[in-house]
Amino acid sequence: MQIDIVTLFPELLSSPFKASILKRAIKAKKVIVNFHLIRDYAENKQKKVDDYPFGGGAGMVMKIEPIYRCISQLKKEKTYDEIIYLTPDGEQLNQSISNTLSTKKNIIILCGHYKGVDQRVRDHLITREISIGDFVLSGGELAAAVLCDSIIRLIPGVLGDESSALTDSYQDGLLAPPIYTRPAIYKGWKVPKILTSGNTPEIEKWREKQALEKTKNTRPDLMNNQN
Ligand code: ADE
Fold this sequence. Notes:
By secondary structure, this protein is α/β, with parallel strands linked by helices.
């Protein structure tokens, strides 16, 4: 998979790719991540990438020309499955979207800033708009890091234990059950007995029940999707 990230502030985004699972995925060539600086595509002398909104109002708007030039250049070199714009008014990211995106070959992610991009970018260049939640960040870069992490860990061969992504919260529509490791007793706090019983079918039943209970208590909205 190749992910091309179009951004004004790559420094906000680089560190998540330099550690742990994402670093390993890049080293193992499971994914190529490139940063493209929008400012490099600004043709004016001042390298201006934003301007005042037509009709007035607070905040600046990211100009269409440098974004168009950058994305057009990328599209000359490759065919992209999706060109994603990260924005608080996009469709809300969930595990199903990450699963789908992890199967793509090439994607572009455009990070917005200020009041956002000129609407014509969204109308004519973007294929999908994604929000990472109902809150507003200073820009799309941190959201891009979240999106990339959620996608890259799902690429086959990236996680050490292949099955571990399948037991994540949300993969079966439920939150994950509690997990424990040694010691079995710490400061008098005990691990549930069933987990040290060696009785795999009963452990599975216990985990299912815990997952259901946790989901009912913490995210009752997800229960509507259960049969
Ligand atoms: N940019 C600013 N806020 C955002 C959000 N919640 N999701 C995606 N991109 C954003």
